[in-house]
Amino acid sequence: MTAPDSLTDPESLRTRALEALTTARERTALLTSCVEDPELTAQHSPLMSPLVWDLAHIGNQEELWLLREVAGREAMRPEIDGLYDAFEHPRAARPSLPLLPPAEARQYAAEVRGRALDVLESAAFQGTRLTEAGFAFGMIAQHEQQHDETMLITHQLRKGPAALTAPDPAPAPLFTGPAEVLVPEGPFVMGTSTEPWALDNERPAHRRTVPAFFIDTTPVTNAAYQAFIEDGGYGDRRWWTPEGWDHIRAHDIEAPLFWRREGGQWLRRRFGVTEVVPPDEPVLHVCWYEADAYARWAGRRLPTEAEWEKAARHDPAADRSTRYPWGDADPTPEHANLGQCHLRPAPAGSYPAGESPLGVRQLIGDVWEWTSSDLLPYPGFVAFPYREYSEVFFGPEYKVLRGGSFAVDPVACRGTFRNWDYPIRRQIFSGFRTARDAAPGSS
Question: How confident is the model at residue 3 (pLDDT cuts 50, 70, 90)?
Answer without folding.
Answer: very low
